[in-house]
Known about the structure:
The chain is mainly alpha-helical. It is built from 18 helices and six strands.
Amino acid sequence: xxxxxxxxxxxxxxxxxxxxxxxxxxxxxxxxxxxxxxxxxxxxxxxxxxxxxxxxxxxxxxxxxxxxxxxxxxxxxxxxxxxxxxxxxxxxxxxxxxxxxxxxxxxxxxxxxxxxxxxxxxxxxxxxxxxxxxxxxxxxxxxxxxxxxxxxxxxxxxxxxxxxxxxxxxxxxxxxxxxxxxxxxxxxxxxxxxxxxxxxxxxxxxxxxxxxxxxxxxxxxxxxxxxxxxxxxxxxxxxxxxxxxxxxxxxxxxxxxxxxxxxxxxxxxxxxxxxxxxxxxxxxxxxxxxxxxxxxxxxxxxxxxxxxxxxxxxxxxxxxxxxxxxxxxxxxxxxxxxxxxxxxxxxxxxxxxxxxxxxxxxxxxxxxxxxxxxxxxxxxxxxxxxxxxxxxxxxxxxxxxxxxxxxxxxxxxxxxxxxxx
Length: 421
Ligand code: ACO
């Protein structure tokens, strides 16, 4: 095993070097503080490996994304449940394993009827992500957190999340909840629960079903991003699956993470209302004083095209054409991308479109309202979160996540009682 040397105030220590299966190198600093008294500082953890994982691999320089070794481009035609099984349980399922997985999910799709009372308590102005995070957390009140139930709870969560997501939407538009149907695909059933009403039969449009299935697969995992790290951080304390994933939902909500897909559409609408003046918005994004960022651009890991964005750009065109929709926002997005990719500010900082840049345009064409976009992201990311939580849960050598800090406050001083201040 190779090692790296760390020299500090005359002390020199050897630090082991860990190499991953795709050649990534990590210097193991776990003995650094006990040997030298020093810790590392890494704001935003851009250089910090928090775990060893077998689930996903990203090469940000080359624009590569693999789920358990399989390239993202080769998986988009599979079914979301096939990919979910592979992410969670580690290998591609046989036909029998997939059929059993599907049947297990079918049995658990309903949410406890009592939970509907919680839903009904929300104002219909509530953001669906607020509802989603608390409903996922509430599942731990209904399902015991015992070692024997861990695997069942994984199936329960996979099965119930689409129902919760769709029910929260129905709640927000004041329509009756539509119950799940086991004869439909994962994507088809979700569309049915979102858009059917008790008044008339609902036919799932195969174009929408296919597009949703692809979007879910593209979002299914992305190694140690903000929400996944949150799931692992919370899970490291021994918190149950539902509590850990509810925390991940909250982390995803932020506009710098999954909330960006909603922000992209709102930004494109703003540009449209402002006469489609792309250059003005590119200039604003370059001006730090404006506080404006080009949403859907840039990524902590990708310094090249996000491979998911590459797929979505092509698919956005295709899906809109198949649906016969002419959305001016797609043209604005394409023009904005062209202007930004030629601009030295974006080129020098390697800022390319990310997964959120084109996903919202497809969701919009599917009739999904903007404030549901991040919920759609969460639905897709669920198998990844579960896989990451399960990997952590099954580790024999897991430790609670507990970073250190460099304190910059007042040095030690005498406390002043209230009557002497
Ligand atoms: N528009 C304008 N400038 C940007 C953008 C952007 N979208 N993104 C990064 N920059 C600039 C920064 O101002 C910084 O410039 P500087 O070096 O002159 O200070 C430089 O590029 C590096 O940016 P950081 O913020 O340091 O990069 P970081 O890795 O911390 O952030 C992030 C990544 C959060 C994705 C960022 O690019 C961003 O805010 N993008 C817009 C939001 C977005 O689309 N988020 C979705 C990400 S994908 C996902 O979560 C699914």
